[in-house]
Amino acid sequence: MKEIKRVFSGVQPSGDPQLGNYLGAFKGWVDRQSEKENFFCVVDLHALTVTPDPEQLVSQTRDLAAILFACGLDPKKSTLFVQSHVPAHAEGCWLLNCVTPLGWLERMTQFKDKSEGRGSVSTALLDYPVLMAADIILYDAHEVPVGEDQKQHVELARDIANRFNSIYGETFVVPEPVIPDIGGRVMGLNDPMVKMSKSYSHIRGHAVRMLDDPKEIERSFMRAVTDSGNEIRFSEEEEKAGVNNLLGIYKVITGKNEKEVERDFESVRGYGDLKKTVAEVVVEELTPIREQYEHLMDDVAELDRLLAIGAEHAASVSMPKVREMKEKMGLIVP
Ligand code: TYM
After folding, report:
1. Whose CA is nearest to atom 16 of ligand 1?
2. For residue 263, what pLDDT band results from cuts at 50, 70 and 90?
3. What CATH code would you report for 186-294?
4. Can you tell me which atom of ligand 1 is nearest the CA of 188?
5. Residue in 198, 240, 275, 321 annotated catalytic
6. What is the pLDDT of residue 51?
7. Is the N end or the C end of the chain the one with fewer CB atoms within 10 Å?
8. Residue spans per domain, the chain
9. CA torsion through residues 64, 67, 69, 71, sign
10. Which CATH code of 3.90.79.10, 3.90.770.10, 3.40.50.620, 3.40.50.1580 fits the domain covering 6-179+300-329?
11. Chain centroid to CA 11
12. Which are the contacts of 172, defined by CB distance < 8 A and separation ≥ 6?
């Protein structure tokens, strides 16, 4: 097994990437990319579980890859690729299906949430976490930087890795989720009790989309739900969830600690000024990303070339792993 510490994470090209994706995942990927060997994946096969429009899936996949490069992922430090370009993921998923008990998948809260109230859901929706486990463990990733909502899936990947190892002998590194303390759960601006999500980013006032223009970002923050008081402080109280969320966003972007953040707002009267200040730091953070994204989308051939290089490198790590799995499982490997 390799000694070098690896990081793996992924994002689905479904809906518009939003501030929660950025603060819970992308920002940390970029900030720490010099520390380890990194693989980041645009998981288009996962996006298929909700049968998106094919043309839209094509454009959302490229958009998301361009946004990730625009955030600062550097092809010299991080391997960014599209999941379906590396066949090891789908193949590894099948092999792992064969050691994963059905009950483990039926217990996943995201499956329960996504299937609730729907007459029929695809088999792939249930199998989603096994594909995610394949993504991670085929790279012997030690660390999986994700937002809080993906913790249960990463824990399942650990269970699957352990089970495979115990049946067929040491094969996989058992991965750990790495969750940022505050950015790990950015809440909706229209309802601070609900996680900000790509799936609701079409709902007015819910999310700040990463490509929104400054006016739109300011409008979203000015409409943010708070409480009827006027105290600007971090708090676990349900009533203060809106203010807490705004302060959390400000904290992650500025890199300040809680005391420093509260001090910044000491002399501020009313939530209007709080919202305005938070909107300003978010605009400052996202504007260069939007500009760089536009620049990258001017040359789609170059973007595709970078993704092809990423896929080639990813395949050079994951294909031999699938081969090893097959041999251990008793398949004849030509
Ligand atoms: P996805 O596409 O829903 O989200 C991508 C990343 O963004 C984080 N995130 C958030 N973090 C904080 N606050 C929020 N409101 C918020 N919304 C989203 C997610 O936790 C995630 O880290 N199943 C995964 C994709 C995946 C994957 C993987 C991740 C597939 N294979 C392997 C890690 C490793 C997903 O749907 O993420």
Report:
1. 20
2. very high
3. 1.10.240.10
4. 15
5. 198
6. 78
7. C
8. 6-179+300-329, 186-294
9. negative
10. 3.40.50.620
11. 4
12. 137, 140, 161, 164, 165
Chain segment 283-314, per-residue pLDDT in tens = 999 999 999 999 999 999 999 999 999 999 99
Q: Which residue minimizes the CA distance to atom 5 of ligand 1?
A: 11
Is 195 catalytic? The answer is: yes
Residue nearest to atom 33 of ligand 1 (CA): 9
**Ligand 1 pocket check for 38: Cβ under 6 Å:** no
Mean pLDDT of the chain: 95
Q: Is the pTM of this model over 0.85?
A: yes
- From the list 36, 77, 114, 326, the catalytic residue is 114
Closest ligand 1 atom to the C-alpha of 11? 2
Q: Tell me whether residue 328 is one of the annotated catalytic residues.
A: no
Q: Is the CB of 13 under 6 A from ligand 1?
A: no
pLDDT in tens, 42-57: 999 999 998 789 999 9
Q: Which structure tokens are listed for 159?
A: 């269970």
- Answer yes or no: is the C-beta of 251 below 6 A from any ligand 1 atom: no
What is the rounded distance in angstroms from the CA atom of residue 251 to the CA atom of residue 282? 11
Query: Kind and range of the H or E element at 67?
Result: helix 54-71
pLDDT tens digits for 77-118? Answer: 999 999 999 999 999 999 999 999 999 999 999 999 988 888
Instruction: Note the pLDDT of residue 203.
Output: 85
What residue's CA is closest to ligand 1, atom 18?
A: 21
C-alpha dihedral (29, 31, 37, 39), degrees to nearest 10: 20
**Residue 24 Cβ < 6 Å to ligand 1:** yes
Tally of residues, the chain: 334
Q: Give the torsion sign (CA, 171, 153, 61, 286).
A: negative
For residue 1, pLDDT over 70 is answered with no
